[in-house]
Amino acid sequence: MSGILNLVIGLAMGLNLIALGSSRLPTLIRAVSVQGVLLGVMPVLMESERLDWRVLLVALATIAGKGLLIPSLLRRAMRAANIEREVEPFIGFVPSLLLGAVGTIAAVALARALPLLPEHVGMLLVPGSLASLLTGFILLIGRVKAISQVCGYLILENGIFLFGLLLIHSTPLLVESGILLDVTVGVFIIGIIVDRIQRAFDSLDTRKLTALHE
Amino acid sequence: MTLGLLLLIAFLALSASIVVGFRRPRIWLALTVAGAMLGMTAALRVLLGGESGEWQSGFLLGGETLHLRLDGVSALFLMLVAVIGGTGAVYSHEYWADQHNPSTAPRGRVCWSALLICMGLVLLVSNGLHFLIVWELFALCGYFLITLDRERNGVRAAGWLYLVASHAGTLGLFAFFALLASRTGSWNLGPMRAHAELAPLFWLALFGFGVKAGFFPLHIWLPSAHANAPSHVSAIMSGVAIKLGVYGIVRFSGWLPIPPAAGWVVTGLGATSALLGIAFAFAQNDFKRLLAYCSVENIGIIMIGVGVALLAMTHGNAPWGRLALAGALLHVWNHGAFKALLFFGAGSVLHATGTREMSRLGGLARVMPWTAGLFALGTLAVAGLPPLNGFVSEWLLYLGLFAVVTGKGVTAWIAMPAAIMLAMAGAIALASFAKAGAVIFLGAARTQPAAQAHECGYWMRGPMLVLASICVVIGLAPVLCWPAVAGAVASWHPTWAIGEPPVSLVTLGSAQIALAIMILAAAAWLWWTAYHNGLQRGPTWDCGYATPRARMQYTSASFAGIVSGWFRWVLQPERKARRPRGDFPAEAIRLEHMPETVLEHIIAPVGGLIMQASSTVLRLQHGRLQFYILYVLAGLIGIGLFVFWGCIP
């Protein structure tokens, strides 16, 4: 069981690298949405022996939210704001990839040093979550356009979600759904803000926001 | 009528005067004076009748019950508040009248009444939390009064400086009262000498109250605030408000145990403050700044007395401590009276000529005889000359200091230099006020406004006459106010009760009266001979010049030149001079500016460094989102590492 789970997490970590290396916004959004679907499958895989309706609900909601709803919101914002499809990097693609790789290795190393429960030791959950967090941060710091930063934020949130899976038995459904709702609303609002930034500055370059500073 | 009822009615009268202050200046004046008189009656009954009051009420304010107390020490200061508050109110009726200052006069009246209430409450409140509240309100009322004329830049700057310095002091007081409350377990104040562990708190109180009292080097706010405020406000700030700082030091050194070094430090600070304060005063050209620096000197004199009393307390309750403390407390009254008189006189000159620069005045004695005479009386009192009140209190202080010196104990090491510095300060004070009186009132008018000056009206003259008569009465009959001072000393330290006035004080009283009679006789003889032989009037400075001009007179800077040269190391005067050279000299210039040394050479550079450091940090806030996220990441990693290393010891 843990073999399939590790495979899925490995795929998600691969998607992190794709997100870091992609130069076009649609690819980036697609990577995020595929990662969302993979994450949605994960609770089912973990609990395949004793499935109950709550786990299924979490899985379905995650797939629908992260895999479909949020990416479609992003695409709509992209179309509505008439954004060019290129990702403008602040940190170049190759350095980002290198940073991502180093981050992934560091995450694996760090996970070994952490005092984990015995049933989590063999799994990639913790390294995967740390690597996603770092990837999210690299995207947030290293990309110029607001949309790509939203993608970074989503990947960061996926890392948190992975960490949360460690606690799937003890986290109530309400908290899970609350987090999901928060993320969706966050992206929704960012979509609106993106549109406003575009109108005010004729560009989505967040560097131009410095004009607002006193 | 009981004491509590008197104070309650005084409070109600002053509160009512706040309400009517905006519209009805005359009713305001009547109510304020009535409130001041009632407060004075209550204070007198405590001081002379030996009553004392303590009131506790179940009413909760900020979670603490109200607790008021009026004993000898607070009554002594309450008397001062009432006298200067009442006379200042009368003075402001003409000085800051509605027809000249339609927009600010009503505000000034309201703030004045509020200030009187707050100062009274500072003296009465006996709960740490409430003390902080009324202390803060008192500082704010002072701020609004100082900035009454806020259209002018200098006034606003002085107001800010006062507010900032005042809050720095209040910060110390917050620490003081909070630590006191946490160590004793209650906000209630009262005698607690038994708790020896409270002694170090004295230093916090000394700082907090010292900023308000304005002794060197905490006086930075004082000169500009007193110079720029309207004169009746300068009078109450200088005469009373800074005394509340002294009250705090006296009160809490009496109630709390003191560290052994306290007496040494306070005496040293007082002596430094007395000498440097008057050195700064002598060098000033602005007569209100001169008076303000002179307040620094007088606070120094009072602090010497308090310091010697503290020395006596740590060295076996020696009797000289009582004399010095009595001198200091009497000087609180005396300085209040003559400094308010001098500020009223200065206000009258300012009112008549519109300038505070002494070098633009001159010859005012002819057009303003009342002001000139009363100002001269004030200068004699402030210089500590007999037969006036300044001499009496300084004399008590000298008696105490001489007793320490002749006692040949270890304490003589501080008392001797303090006595020498006090004597030097007295000499320079005499010179400063000779300069102020001569340059302002004697000689010929230097400018047009000085020539066209006019005498002040009755509303301004009356309060000056009252204060001048207080100076004379205390000077001629020091025995009269002895019970008040002795009562205050007794309530400061219960075992220090002194019943009979010292023999020397009685002798001093008769000597002063004899001296006064001699002076009066000499004046009468002079007047008689002048009246009979006929007076010949000629221009001043007519000594050998073909066409004497007003600009040939001594200026205030030339008067002070030599002495300010002695103190150049601390005064740091900024000079700009171009001497006349060659056969056809170009225009010659000599400009001299006296900076406020502590402020401009110590505090301003330190403040500049802090501002520089802050603007370096401000560069981190550039508005680039990506970098902000980097900061967050760096912070997270930092916390992570901290936790990580914390887990693996």
Summarize the structure.
Chain A is mainly α and 214 residues long.
Overview of the structural elements:
The complex is a heterodimer of chains A (214) and B (649). With 214 residues, chain A is mainly alpha-helical. Chain A is globular. In chain A, helix 1 packs antiparallel against helix 2 (25-46). The longest helix of chain A is centred in the last third of the chain and has 29 residues, at 173-201. Chain A has helices at 2-21, 25-46, 53-80, 93-113, 125-142, 146-165, 173-201. With 649 residues, chain B is mainly α. Chain B contains 24 helices and four strands. In chain B, strands 1-2 form a two-stranded antiparallel ribbon. Chain B has a two-stranded antiparallel sheet with strand order 3-4. Chains A and B meet through helix 5 of A and helix 24 of B.
Write the SSE topology.
The complex is a heterodimer of chains A (214) and B (649).
Chain A: H1 2-21, H2 25-46, H3 53-80, H4 93-113, H5 125-142, H6 146-165, H7 173-201
Helix pairs in contact in A: 1-2, 1-4, 1-5, 2-3, 2-6, 3-7, 4-5, 5-6, 6-7
Chain B: H1 3-20, H2 25-49, E1 53-61, E2 64-70, H3 72-95, H4 105-124, H5 128-146, H6 153-184, H7 201-213, H8 222-228, H9 231-255, H10 262-283, H11 287-314, H12 319-353, H13 364-367, H14 369-382, H15 389-407, H16 412-441, H17 448-451, H18 458-476, H19 482-492, H20 503-533, H21 556-566, H22 568-571, E3 574-578, E4 589-593, H23 597-618, H24 625-647
Antiparallel strand pairs in B: 1-2, 3-4
Helix pairs in contact in B: 1-2, 1-4, 2-3, 2-4, 2-19, 3-4, 3-9, 3-12, 3-18, 3-19, 4-5, 4-9, 5-6, 6-7, 6-8, 7-9, 8-9, 8-11, 9-11, 9-12, 10-11, 10-16, 10-21, 11-12, 11-15, 11-16, 12-14, 12-15, 12-18, 12-19, 14-16, 14-18, 15-16, 15-18, 16-21
